[in-house]
Amino acid sequence: MKSNQQNGGSFLCSWSGGKDSYFAFYRAVQQGYKPKVLLNTLNEYGDKSRSHGIPKELLEQQAKAVGLPIEFIETTWETYEERYIAKLKELHEKYAFTHAVFGDIDIESHRAWEEKVANAANVKAVLPLWQGDRKELVEGMITAGIKTMIVSCRKELADSLLGEVIDGSLIKKFEELGIDACGENGEYHTFVLDGPLNGTTIAVDTGSVKTHNTYAFLDLHRTTFQT
Fold first, then answer.
1. Torsion of CA 175, 18, 212, 82, to 10 degrees
2. Which residue from 15, 134, 111 is spatially nearest to 63, judged by alpha carbons?
3. With 90 as the cut, is the pLDDT of residue 175 above it?
4. Which PANTHER family has this protein been placed in (predicted)?
5. 3-class DSSP state of 11
6. 158 and 131 in contact (C-beta within 8 Å)?
7. What residue ranges define each of the domains in the chain, with the CATH number in brackets?
8. How high is the pLDDT of residue 223?
9. What's the whole-number mean pLDDT along residues 130-135?
10. Phi first, then psi: what are they for 172, rounded to 5°?
């Protein structure tokens, strides 16, 4: 696995609320980095995450579950990079981290962007999942105890995937449907309910399915904690 090998620093985690950001966070901790803060990007209305459609209050409960503060940006796609860099600089001053952790796996343009914004804030980008085998990464998440639910996907996959928790049998279904195991081609997005770094499990109530363009989103309700 190719990644930044300088460990022992502190980090901000770029946090989607989904499996890849959680697993990257987990691996960074395993590699000796110290977590300081999570950063999520919301839509311009400030109520849901821009990419996954996860309500802000659920992201806040995820942060409580892993024992970290979470910071937010409200932005359109047009102002995304500008606001991301500005926020990263602001948080670098506030939390004094040395690295920014991202969950991308093998898309070079994503890595280039992450290194660009990290450099602009005078921190180093770390990609703990970089160049990992996609199926092996998902299997590693399951083995580590990361419980993650599919909360959005391509419309044609909604009946098969929405609301499902990823396990070995679902990976087999991915293969049958011709879906990338990690959803790296945009087939689906997830919300993490539990994991090895959690102090509590998040219980989610699901509602109706809403569609926007070519994507379907599962309506998620306010969570409660279980001990």
1. -130
2. 15
3. yes
4. DIPHTHINE--AMMONIA LIGASE (PTHR12196:SF2), DOMAIN OF UNKNOWN FUNCTION 71 DUF71 -CONTAINING PROTEIN (PTHR12196)
5. strand
6. no
7. 10-126 (3.40.50.620), 134-226 (3.90.1490.10)
8. 54
9. 94
10. -65, -40
Edge-to-edge strand list for the sheet holding 70-74: 70-74, 34-42, 10-14, 99-101, 124-126
pLDDT at 7 over 70: no
- What DSSP assignment string belongs to 157-224? GHHHHTTPBP-HHHHHHHHHHT--TT-TTSSEEEEEEE-TT-SSEEE--EEEEEEETTEEEEEEPPPE
Chain centroid to Cα 124, Å, comes to 19
- Whole-angstrom Cα distance, residue 143 to residue 167? 10
* Dihedral (CA of 27, 170, 193, 41) sign: positive
What's the pTM value of the predicted model, to 2 decimals? 0.91
Closest-CA residue to 95 (of 71, 75, 72) = 71
| Predicted confidence (pLDDT) per residue in 59-77, tens digit | 999 999 999 999 999 998 8
Count of CB atoms situated within 10 Å of the CB of 168: 9
β-strand 147-154 against 215-220: which pairing, if any? antiparallel
Query: What's the pLDDT at 77?
Result: 87
CA distance 14 to 50: 13
Number of helices (H) and strands (E) in the chain: give both, helices first: 7, 11
Q: What distance in Å separates the CA atoms of residue 24 and residue 13, rounded to the nearest whole number?
A: 8
Instruction: Round to whole Å and give the CA distance between 24 and 201.
Output: 19
pLDDT at position 68 is 97
Hunting for tokens 């995820």 — which residue is that? Answer: 62
- Name beta bridge partners: 11: 35, 99
